[in-house]
Amino acid sequence: MLPLLTGLSIAMFLWPTPEDLSPAGQSALAIAILAVGLWSTEILPMAVTGMAVVVMLVLFGAVPAYQSALHGFAQPVAYFLIGVLTLGLAVSKSGLANRMARFFLHRCRGQRQALYAQLLLAFPVLTLVLPSATTRTGILIHVYAQALELSGVRPDSHLSRAIMMALNSINRLASTVLLTGGITPVVSASLIGQVSWSRWFVLMSVPYGVLLLVGAILIHRLYRRGFEGTPLTVPEMEAEPLSPAEWRTIAITIGASLLWLSDAWHQWHPALPALIAWICLLSPKIGVLSWREFEHDIGWSNFFVLATSLSLANALIQSGAGAWLATRLIEQVPVMQQYPLLTVLGLLIVSTPIRLLIPNITGFLAITIPLAMSIGAASGLNPIVCGLLVMIAGDAVLYYPAQSASSLVVHERGFLSAAEIFRFGIMMTVVAYLIAFGVALPYWTAVGEPLQRLPIP
């Protein structure tokens, strides 16, 4: 794939600039194509690719000044990730991960299927307490990595990869069911407009519940050899009471969670509670981590990849390249009032390359939802449904780790390769299309949000 994308990138650089695309936009698109190839194949370390993107944005004129190339490093989401990673590290270092891992192994009685099922059931339950998928992943990855180690399962085994793929790819889906569940629902609801918390839950619960279930079954089938064989080793349960470090970790995590859940009241960005937790966890006599432990074990690659992917997404949006690409693709969608499902299929198909090239979900949503709603209105279709459909098409998939903070957390631990994540992303693209047609559209019609709200002349 890399040779193909490299060739496309070079061609984009050398091609005469279209009249309705700025030279900066042309450069940004070319850089994005190359970055996708490098991130998907890991020819270079992912953080190195990210920093190379920053340099290329400046050298090839994709941004007006070098400060714009560093845009992602000034965004709160990058520091939210640092706080979340620190919470996960504290769960591990305090001994809480080991205690939870032993508990889960005892509950599943060594049955591989049961361990996987426990993880899947934890996603929707923990969403009510920890709405952010990144937070859940940052904590659960330490717990299940410990469980796998205690039971003697190798990191490269099919069982390990199945559990980590679930954390990487479908854990996020539980968050979107709630309007307060993360960036995707908040941005989408604001772009669509007039969607209450309860209405959002009604609209999203069934399609996303089916999406999560089908994704889980697909992972089980792909890694089915990991669910065969002898039962897992079940270590003895620790009878000791919780240590002071464990109690402090629990208290700080609950405090951060309460601040996240009450954001409608205080209006703080999620990064602020995460940084408050970070400060507490590293403060003497309060926290459980030393600065040396944080510095050594935090996984700095995650920070650099996320920040540089945000810079790339910002360059695509500010230069007009993202909107230009989306408009060119959307123009190919058939506006046929007699065949509304063809219009829907066209919207889903053109959303795929846009999602591939724009690493940041916010950028993808900001470009595609307004365009999809405009196409829907012009076709006599329900604009809300059209906007929600492209959201599902983009949110259900991850093609490379730089597209999601939670995916970066998993990839950093070395359980999954970028190529493996890309292949599963392609499969989930097909799943998202099928669920959009087979589940979402009929269900939304049943709850009062039909595809054809407007009469056909």
Please describe what this structure looks like.
The structure is a single chain. With 457 residues, the protein is mainly alpha-helical. It has two domains: 2-69 and 301-446, no CATH class; 76-300, no CATH class. It has helices spanning 2-14, 23-41, 46-59, 66-69, 76-93, 96-108, 112-127, 133-150, 158-176, 183-192, 197-222, 244-261, 263-266, 271-282, 291-297, 300-318, 321-330, 340-357, 361-378, 383-395, 405-412, 418-446. Helix 3 runs parallel beside helix 16 (300-318), helix 6 crosses helix 8 and helix 9 (158-176) packs antiparallel against helix 21. The radius of gyration is 22 Å and the shape is globular. The N and C termini lie far apart (46 Å). The model has no long low-confidence stretch (mean pLDDT 89).
Mean pLDDT: 89
Domain unit count: 2
Distance N to C terminus: 46 Å
Strand-pairing-aware structural class: mainly alpha
Radius of gyration over all CA atoms, rounded:
22 Å
Secondary structure: number of strands? 0
The secondary-structure element order is HHHHHHHHHHHHHHHHHHHHHH
In which range does the helix fraction lie?
Answer: over 70%
The total of helices stands at 22
Transmembrane segments: 20-39, 46-67, 73-92, 113-133, 173-193, 200-223, 272-291, 303-327, 339-358, 378-400, 421-444
InterPro entries: SLC13A/DASS (IPR001898)
Protein name: Sodium:sulfate symporter
Membrane topology: Multi-pass membrane protein
